[in-house]
Structure formats: C-alpha cells, structure tokens
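User: For my dataset I need records formatted as: sequence, then structure tokens, nothing else. Please produce one.
Assistant:
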Amino acid sequence: MKKLHLAVQSIEGITTVGVNRHMLFDLKSDDFSLPVYADFPLGCLQRTQGGLDNEVLISIDFAINSDKNGLKALEFLSWWVRDLARGGLSVQLRALALPPIAGQLGKTLTFTIDYFYRDPAQDMQQLLDKVLELAESLNAAKQMYLE
C-alpha cells in the first residue's frame, strides 16, 4: 500500500494522502447513518444494501492545493480512475466535505478513490498484489502524461 500512497503523493498539487482498507462484507444498510461510515461510498452501497460477500474497500483519500496545480492533479486522477473503470475495474472517485457550519465551508473539501475488491479466498497477498498493480498503473500514467 505504501507504493500506492507514494504514487499519489508524488503528483504535483496533491497535499495529503492516506490509503486505508475497510472490510465491507459485514456492513448493512442499517449502519449507514452511523458517523463512522459517513465517508464511505454510501451511494454505491445503497444499491446492494451494504457490502457484498468477501468485499473490501481500498480508499485512497487525498487533498489538493486550491490552485492550478491542484486542479490539474484532480483532473489527472479523475481521468486515470475513469480509464480504470472503463477497463472493468470497480473504482470511482468522489468528493467529500463536512457540513457547512461554524465557518468551515470552503475549508474541508477532500477527495477519495474507492477501489472495491472481492476475493472469496480472502487472501491478503492477492489484495496487496492488486494494490501494487494500481500503483504501477498510476506510475506508468504519470510517466506517460505528466513527465
């Protein structure tokens, strides 16, 4: 997961990055209102009334500079995710923000890339291999289009 973290972090205009793993297979739609799940891809999960069997979510959370470089980084990652999804990968990019209270409007916008992974064998090495493939794909795209 570190290689994926570094691949995103190295894009000019990205300010912070976090890569996290969430087990979705026990998540039910009744849980969606709980604060701990507020940043989960609830629109997708509503369609299946929760996580699917043997499903794991890899979240790549990031923030951008509020300038031309940040927008360019966001546009590049948006294209990369769109291209992966068109190729058949269960992946999407979403924007996140806190409620517009106490003067925080305009200060909490972040983004996340959701990668949905299912493995009946629940083999951690296979998951790590898939995450490494994402990192390699992003690094190749960066080399081709950003350098």
